[in-house]
Write a structure and sequence with these properties.
The chain has about 150 residues and is mainly α. Helices cover about 55% and strands about 5% of the residues. The chain has a two-stranded antiparallel ribbon with strand order 1-2.
């Protein structure tokens, strides 16, 4: 299973904000730090803001901050939200699978997908940036030309 780019970016963005301290980087700065298009980062920030995990303020003194809810958010719940409810394989697509009515693989893959999410459920954003990850992430997040 491979995570969607938006899921990966959401997790990395939350981790970045969790180690930001008093700083409030802008969406553009975070996009640059992570080497992703600004438009993609802006969509992810909007979704995280809608979920109540990130505060985004415009203008002078604005930027992104992680909310208390964002710090304690379950990684499993976050991944479920960004990945959606879809199956690992598309059995009913444009060309439906001929085994669809009697297939045991689809159920097994669904159980494996749920086990994947369940393994992430107890992990929080704060857990992801605990030692030694947080200090390393902070150093990486400063980007080129940072002091």
């Amino acid at each position: 299973m491979r995570l969607l780019r938006s899921t990966d970016l959401a997790l990395r963005l939350l981790m970045r904000l969790a180690v930001a301290g008093g700083a409030s980087p802008t969406t553009r700065e975070v996009a640059g730090d992570m080497d992703v298009p600004y438009t993609h980062a802006a969509k992810v920030v909007a979704e995280l803001q809608h979920m109540g995990l990130v505060d985004a303020r415009r203008g002078r003194g604005g930027g992104l901050t992680l909310t208390a809810k964002g710090r304690t958010a379950s990684v499993g719940a976050l991944v479920r939200t960004f990945e959606g409810d879809g199956d690992v394989v598309d059995c009913e697509g444009a060309t439906p699978c001929p085994l669809n009515s009697a297939c045991r693989l689809r159920g097994a893959l669904r159980r494996a997908q749920e086990a994947f999410f369940a393994a992430l459920d107890p992990l929080t954003v704060a857990d992801m940036v605990a030692e030694p990850t947080g200090p390393l992430l902070l150093g990486i997040s400063r980007g080129p030309g940072a002091e």
